[in-house]
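[Meeting: bench + compute handoff]

Bench side (C.D.) handed over the final construct sequence. Compute side (W.E.) agreed to return the predicted structure before the next meeting so the bench team could plan truncations. Sequence as handed over:
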Amino acid sequence: SEMASNEKQNISSGTMSRLSESRKNNMNKASKKYSISGARTLFTVLFRRLLVEVEQKPWLREALCVSAYTMACCILRLILCLLMELGKYKWHGEREDGGVTFLVGSEVMGCVSYLSKLLLSLLPTTSLSSSTSTGSSADADTTSLVVVMPGLIFTGLLFPMQSYFKCPSCPSLPVRITEMVLGRLTARRLVSVILPIHFASAVLGAFALRMLLPSAMEQTALDPIVYSEKNPWTVDFAKEVLLTALYTVAVLVAPELLKLNKISMGLVPFLLWPLYRGAVDADGLGSSFSPNVLYALRCVSRHEEVPFRQSSHLLGPIVGALFGGKIMKMAFPDPRDDR
């Protein structure tokens, strides 16, 4: 009888312990479920609140647009660099260890390489020479690097970002400066709001992308644009001023012409094709038309300010935008200026 009672007690204690463990597990699952749902609810509330703030404050919408624009441009640079690496692949050959590559894989990579070369041949590119020294000047090796003109990268995403964030103007600093000359915004607002927003938002966008991307991709996407310093500073500065003045006029006029003729806005970057090929240094590299992004890449990747020899490509677009505004005011004034 004692053994039976002990067995009953053991069974009852075991069942109670199992019941308590199942209750604890159910409570933990319920708490996790409620915590996840609570986090989702909090995120939804914060996101809706952010949307309300963005709708009420245009400067915040412009800041988000510039940050997203900077990140998208860097990702586009990464994709183009990947296409260039794919374009270097050879159809057939031997591996470094002496083995022969598989036929199917070679054919597939060969097709991808051919398509990459075909796409890159349609884009405005230039060849930059870089020398690698091996101890003496006579042993220096000179290699050529093909790069896509930065103007195409930084212009192709302007209008998609503008339409997505519903901004009244495209997220381009030179265009905003030109609009100031046209009287669409005051000089005080440009200096106190627009300039800090564009530079700070570009830096934040590049820094956020640096935190998200792996180290190998980060170096490619956020690599600063370095221009040649062979020409005098004034020559590069004058080239930047001239090209940016034409660029701002084209960006403001081309969309209106396309609207009048009921043509898609996606053709605007193609209308600016000749400006992408305009060289602003001795190596034939074109202008970026985005001094804030140029500064952000240098600041985030190398943790330094733009040096004086490179400052012509930072100040030139700003001064060129002022001249572009003067041209717009004389040739294409706003309707309210005619009254």
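W.E. noted at the follow-up: DSSP finds 14 helices and two strands in the chain. C.D. will use this when planning the next construct.
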